[in-house]
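explain this:

___
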Amino acid sequence: MTVRAMSVLLLCLLALAAVTPVRAAGCDMSLDAPQIDYGRLSRATMVAEGDDWLLPPRTVTLTVSCPEPRDMTLRFRAPADDAGEFRFTERGRLSPHLHDGVLDGEAVALGPVDESARTAVRNGAGLAWLPDQPLAPLKAGRVAMGRVFRVQLDLQARVNDSAMNGRDATSWSFDGLIEAVSADVARTLSMQASVQPGSCQVDVVRHVSFGRLHASDLDHHGQSTHVPAAQAGQLRVVCDAPMLVAFRVPHDERSGTAAVPVDAGLAYNEHQWFGLGRTSAGEKIGAYALHWALNASSDQGELQVVRSLDGGRSWTASRGSVPAEHEGVEHIGYARALDATTVPLAVRTLGVTLDAEIYIAPRHTLNFHDEVEADGLATFEIIY
């Protein structure tokens, strides 16, 4: 019984040895940059190509070294997409490209290999590397053997524009395994990036102003006094890439202080009047209405105002300036005047003028023992 048990054990060991692969002693693979970190990316640091954004190109030097001549055929294993390319994030792809191969100090051609015949399907100085496609150094159209093989690996990653439309920062990562199958060595190539969606900055270039008034300038017949604006307001938007931009006025910061004009014959609703604050005695000073100008300047030329009342799902063009509304869902954008569509145009820069109609409350409602400062203030929100 003891002898039989030992025999079974010996047979198992022999069978195990028969299927254990023989490792090429001493072969090694190195990448001079096995971990590629693109840092923080945005549209401003990437290049547009059609509907895609190209990440900055990177090049890695790949070296395989063996003590004895070996077959240097290489494979790149990583997830592939439906188009037969390497997948880079859910909405992107990676295009590896091998070039400038040197085998034992001698420049060689490169080519995809028919593994059964060990011959080149085609060859060249540089080739795109596709999923499940072995590439090898070639001499006379056949796979060349050697001790040291060095080659340059260009990496061009790209993502669809939709991948850049998130509101929050995100991270991208990619891992691929490069194998020299016959040499029984492999290394992982990792890529990562921190992605910041495109950003815009809005500045108030000029505030609305109506100068100074004297009590004697006000209407003496119980009506509100219309005061022409001394200067219109102006907003300027600068984006780091072409962006669809819209505006909203979420708040009148002087809410509850609008003294709606008396006998002015105006057809504004309560959300189109903005307050001018109160006197020290608590009296409402007046009200003003803002108008988005019909036209705006941009890096794409002159644009025309469009308006949405459903949060940006649909837009309508206007034939004139548009009254600004606060506390509502109104969005204001600017589109090409001649376009059939009224959707706001993607721009890098946009200059918008805001006109104002200002009315001071009837004189008999105000106490003028002290100087009164009319101080309207509204918050503008930029949506992109």
